[in-house]
Amino acid sequence: MQVNTEDARTVRSKQALKDAALNFISHGQDFSIANLLEATEVSRGTFYRHYANKNALIRDVNQDLIQEILDQIDEQFPVARVINLVQERAAFYHQSLNMAINPSFYPELLRQLRQAAGYRLKQVTDPNVRRDLLYQGEVIMAGFWACLARWLTNNMELSQAKLLREFTEIFRISIGANSQTALIWFNFEPLP
After folding, report:
1. Whole-structure pTM value
2. What GO MF terms are annotated (predicted)?
3. Is residue 117 part of a domain?
């Protein structure tokens, strides 16, 4: 019985540390382990049982949010659902995409999205087509995140629906010469 209590406390303390780090990042605040301990009322020993250092905690927070995006992907990248997720955590994404407060987030996000695309590319046998699709997919993905970063900088002045329409127009017009394009990996349908 006591093991469950300890496990629950361990889960709670780890989540409290992640929540505090997310809050600091979202507010654009650099923070120390001492700041985290004060905000969470967690002991230094407990912190170090969970994480080797502050960067390990930030990697864990980043991974949770990246996984939240990856969990949305089925056969296609759901543009509208990801826009919705970004809006729900707008402060974090603004700091992570536009400011220097969380510089490891965006490269890791793109790396994992590239890896997810790579799984879909395994079924393409022609190496030239595979290379072209990978290139197109990366251009579309980088453009998508650049649009989101700009949208966040502009305080989300456009509605999600208008942002989705603009993004759809940009990429449906730009990549149309080849019948087999990376656009097949993207779902541009609006949310119900």
Report:
1. 0.87
2. DNA binding
3. yes
Cα 31 to Cα 39, 97, 157, 176, distances in angstroms: 11, 18, 30, 46
Let me know whether 182 and 126 are in one domain.
yes
Q: What count of other Cβ atoms lies within 10 Å of the Cβ of residue 62?
A: 22
pLDDT tens string 32-57: 999 999 999 999 999 999 999 999 99
In a domain, 46, yes or no: yes
Residues in the chain: 192
47 CB neighbour count, 10 Å cutoff = 21
Secondary structure of residue 186 in the 3-state scheme? strand
Please state, in angstroms and rounded to a whole number, the distance separating the CA atoms of residues 141 and 162: 18
| Residue 13 token pair | 């303390």
Our count of domains for the chain comes to 2
Domain that holds residue 14: 1-51
